[in-house]
Amino acid sequence: MDPVEVFVADEQAEVSVDALRWVRLARMVLEEQGVRGDAELSMLFVDEKSMADLNERFLGRDGPTDVLAFPMDDELIESGRQPDQGGRGPGSPAEPSDAPILVGDVVICPKVAERQALEHNLPVDDELTHLVDHGVLHLLGFDHEEDDEAAVMERRERELMARFRELERGQ
User: Fold this and answer.
1) Is 40 exposed, middle or buried (0-12, 13-18, 19+ CB in 10 A)?
2) pLDDT at 37 (0 to 100)
3) Within its chain, how far is the Cα of 79 from the centroid?
4) What strands, in cross-sheet order, belong to the sheet with 101-108?
5) Are 95 and 106 in contact (CB under 8 A)?
6) Which pLDDT tens digit goes with each residue over 98-154?
7) Which residues 6+ apart lie within 8 Å of 116 measured at CB?
8) d(C-alpha 52, C-alpha 106), whole Å
9) Tell me: the pLDDT tens digits for 49-61?
């Protein structure tokens, strides 16, 4: 089976980004969460102005944030539905299709991550690891609005980040 496709674009120049490392992490999170086969995710690293524009446009919040996640279809992962299949509703059996499952887009602002890393006395790469992990989990339906949801998401983030560190040490 082909690995999940992760596309990345670095559209900022303020903080050095190891794009291939973040592709490996995003792919690992997707695979650990059971997403396999013909699926695609896009990851975009942007400057603070671009992130502030997205934050205002989609969440109605001022200023840049660290990470935003834009799922393509909340039901794609759970029900196996493919995009653009017409009127079939949730839970309908999936029909064979050549179209990949479009998981969604994760947008990260490395400059905000750098500031947060300094505030928490962490390396920037640790903060970026968390944000990639966090963003991908959001695409897969994880949330942190309620305390119980936050606890589940944070636990899974820690497990996945530990797994990623193990894989990196093994390389």
Assistant:
1) middle
2) 79
3) 19
4) 5-10, 39-45, 101-108, 67-71
5) no
6) 667 889 999 999 999 999 999 999 999 999 999 999 999 999 999 998 899 999 999
7) 66, 127
8) 15
9) 999 999 999 999 9
Burial class of residue 24 (count of CB atoms within 10 Å of its CB; 0-12, 13-18, 19+): middle
pLDDT, greater one: 156 or 171: 156
**Residues ≥6 apart with Cβ < 8 Å to 66:** 108, 109, 112, 113, 116, 127, 131
Amino acid identity, position 32? E
pLDDT at 73 over 70: no
Supply 27's token pair.
């792919």
